[in-house]
Amino acid sequence: MEVAALKMGKGGGGGGGEVGGEKAKMGFEETELRLGLPGNMGGGEGGEVSMRKRGFSETVDLKLNLSSKESSATVDPNDKVKGLQKEKNLLPCATDPAKPPAKAQVVGWPPVRSFRKNMLACTQKNSSGSSSEESEKAGGSAAFVKVSMDGAPYLRKVDLRMYKTYQELSDALAKMFSSFTIGNCGSQGMKDFMNESKLMDLLNGSDYVPTYEDKDGDWMLVGDVPWEMFVESCKRLRIMKGTEAIGLAPRAMEKCKNRS
Amino acid sequence: MAYSFPDEVLEHVFSFIQTDKDRNTVSMVCKSWYEIERWCRRKIFVGNCYAVSPRMVIRRFPEVRSIELKGKPHFADFNLVPDGWGGYVLPWIAAMAGAYPWLEEIRLKRMVVTDESLELIAKSFKNFKVLVLSSCEGFSTDGLAAIAAGCKFLWWLFSDFGWLLPGKCGLLYALYVDSFLLIMLYRVNDDHVLQTFVYLGLEGIIFQAGAEDSDVFFFLTLIWNLRELDLRESEVDDLSGHWISHFPETYTSLVSLNISCLGSDEVSFSALERLVGRCPNLTTLRLNRAVPLDKIANILRRAPQLVEFGTGTYAAELRPDVFSNLAGAFSSCKELKSLSGFWDAVPAYLPAIYPVCSKLTSLNLSYATIQSPDLIKLVSHCPNLQRLLVLDYIEDSGLEALASSCKDLRELRVFPSDPFGAEPNASLTEQGLVAVSLGCPKLQSVLYFCHQMTNAALITIAQNRPNLTRFRLCIIVPRTPDYLTLEPLDVGFGAIVEHCKNLKRLSLSGLLTDRVFEYIGTYAKRLEMLSVAFAGDSDLGLHHVLSGCESLRKLEIRDCPFGDKALLANAAKLETMRSLWMSSCSVSYGACKLLGQKMPRLNVEVIDERGPPDSRPESCPVEKLYIYRSVAGPRFDMPPFVWMMDDEESALRLS
């Protein structure tokens, strides 16, 4: 069923041209949209915009000649949006609408509350035995954990499934709490933790040290287990002052020794 | 000409005027009506906690009894608003603690509520009755324990000597004598007066008995009158399951308790059972997942008056004695109208609720992984169902059964069982929704997650159900076209807005061009809230919406190619709306600055985790943009990744 072509009425801000049923050409040179402040209504037609009745006295008239020459306004939206996205937020390609995009997880899509996502994740793990294989796929359920940092005024949350290595996590955490120093959390730094004397040097410094609470309720230093195991067992993260984390180190060493 | 009606008469007349809209209108008639109305307004709704300051609210409305506040933008539900953005309730509680000692109800949505705030609530409002925390976070069971304990804290005291300040004493002394709560109060002030008060419930028989010198200093408490504690879908840090034992043994006034969000954190069962047993007015009880199936019967038998009940985990090995006990317990609840919970539901135990199904008006099975055949059996027992929340396991066949059994259905929500799978998890298509639209004449509100849609289906739905007021469709894979014609879904959604003239809320999905926004701008004149994702081609789309939708209050947009032009051209429109959210669009920093400078009544927040927008070119698009009208001016509790685009005046003021 074909809906008849619509005529666009003139909207607020003056100067809107007529638009036919087919996709309009982006002739902004014709429309010359201005800053639509209250009181600045070109012509006296219709008055469908409700704020006119308020009778604002300001009559600032700003003309913004945003022609198509300006790169910012008319750059191909895909490029722009991709530039915005961080690597991990893959945006589905819009140039080929018929094909469903790759299985990439976009932040906040589909719009299901994390409350519900977490509930369903538990349910599925209980009911289906094959879920551990399926969680391999990029679209696996999110693993949000809280991150607190000593001295920071509020908590943050990270989705551990967004990252594939400790380095990526460390970069993200560093960005999040960028006003504080985190110190070297690279994978080499993680391995350094396992070397007892280097560990002591690091902890005696004033740097911050990332720790996490595992499924058993123990507080461990981040980096002592393979990444996948860490994602499975991490319940929450805490970035502690190096001096406070000293007490953790021997336990971490013990757990590590018991495992190997 | 002065009014000849005395104020009391007008006040009495105004007491019949309940809605905010009407109250606001009344207050604008003339100055004296404004004055009378503001003194007798008891209920306040603040849709955006940053649109106005607590001080302003208190100054205008001195006698408020009930307040509702909303904090974060809606997209915070989907993790689009970084943590720490704001929405703190403490400044409000602190201000109201002094100004509204008789406050009875606090309802909060998407706000950060700390244990400190909860403790302050518990000790500041002596007549406190209702606490609803919807999608809030920041508190733990310690805060809940403070709410439960209530009377262990200090209260404001009304006496002939005026209001006393709490904090001057540490102990209270209370005796439960017959049906009185006898409280001994000793107070020392300049006059060294001893006072004794007796309270019976709220109405209170207050009398004063003698006066003596004393240098002992105690404070008074009241019978804790909490009626409703509803945690909706909040996030609670659980430190101890024993918070529920903090309700005193003498406390019997609970009417509604919703702790379903506590998940698998254990709550002390015996304390819960005792609490339920001693509260005869309890009509709503929603348990959390940790409560096992075999405990339900005991709880139900203690509260046969329940109207709304939410189970915990609804799974156990099938045992005839447990089953018959459970079925018996359900049948003893003659007033039950609403059921929810059903985590991990096992089909074998579903028939236990059949005795109550014929009276059910609301059923939430959205955490129950039951398959279609069992769901069909269940809904066919519920002819009076008005509200159904369910997973896509219901499939088209289940929705067809629903359409033929439940002619009174008003609201349907179908959630995805596997939101991240690109392939459908269940046989749920557009046909199911079409069937319900055809069979359920009273259907008004729809939330539907699916994998495929056609324009034809949407047109049919629109023609069948012009009485729709809320239509939220989420096609799981972004930019999915009509799967039969491969065209955009513009025409389908156009039909929805054209036929459903009372449509208040709309969420779009699928492949959509600027054309759909043209339809929306033309037809959706009553639309108040619009959610847009991965849609549109150009600024013209946004321009259609902003210039055409007269009733628009909230607009939230993500991942659309909308830039500066439409936003700036419709700047004035933004003052008529509550808020606009745009993330992953193409609005430049320069445009945000301009908007902030020229629109002093708007707060323009740039949310960008890449660092200061100054460090990038002005033409660079911002990550996220949140614009809202405000009479409170810029806020000062912003985290480092939020920048407020100041107006020229405030910039001058600060310099």
TrEMBL record, chain A:
Keyword set, alphabetical order: Auxin signaling pathway, Nucleus, Repressor, Transcription, Transcription regulation
Q: Which GO terms describe its biological process?
A: auxin-activated signaling pathway; regulation of DNA-templated transcription
Protein name listed in UniProt: Auxin-responsive protein
Q: Where is the PB1 domain?
A: 142-242
Q: What is said about its interaction partners and assembly? A: Homodimers and heterodimers.
Q: Which InterPro entries has this protein been placed in?
A: AUX/IAA_dom, AUX_IAA, PB1-like
User: Organism's domain of life?
Assistant: Eukaryota
Keyword Thylakoid in record = no
Q: Which GO terms describe its cellular component?
A: nucleus
User: What function does the entry list?
Assistant: Aux/IAA proteins are short-lived transcriptional factors that function as repressors of early auxin response genes at low auxin concentrations.
Enumerate composition-biased segments (Gly residues): 9-19
What subcellular compartments does it reside in? Nucleus
**So what family is this one in?**
Belongs to the Aux/IAA family.
- The ranges of region (Disordered) come to 1-22
Pfam families annotated for this entry?
AUX_IAA (PF02309)
TrEMBL record, chain B:
The answer to whether the entry has keyword Cell inner membrane is no
Q: In which pathway does it act?
A: Protein modification; protein ubiquitination
What organism does this protein naturally occur in? Answer: Corchorus olitorius
Record protein name field: F-box domain-containing protein
InterPro entries the record matches = COI1_F-box (IPR041567), F-box-like_dom_sf (IPR036047), F-box_dom (IPR001810), Leu-rich_rpt (IPR001611), Leu-rich_rpt_Cys-con_subtyp (IPR006553), LRR_dom_sf (IPR032675), Transp_inhibit (IPR041101)
Q: How is this protein annotated for GO cellular component? A: nucleus; SCF ubiquitin ligase complex
Q: Name one GO molecular function term.
A: auxin binding
**Where's the F-box domain?**
5-46
Q: Which UniProt keywords apply?
A: Auxin signaling pathway, Developmental protein, Nucleus, Ubl conjugation pathway
Statement: the UniProt record of this protein carries the keyword Nucleus: yes
**GO term, biological process aspect, one:** SCF-dependent proteasomal ubiquitin-dependent protein catabolic process
Q: Where in the cell is it found?
A: Nucleus
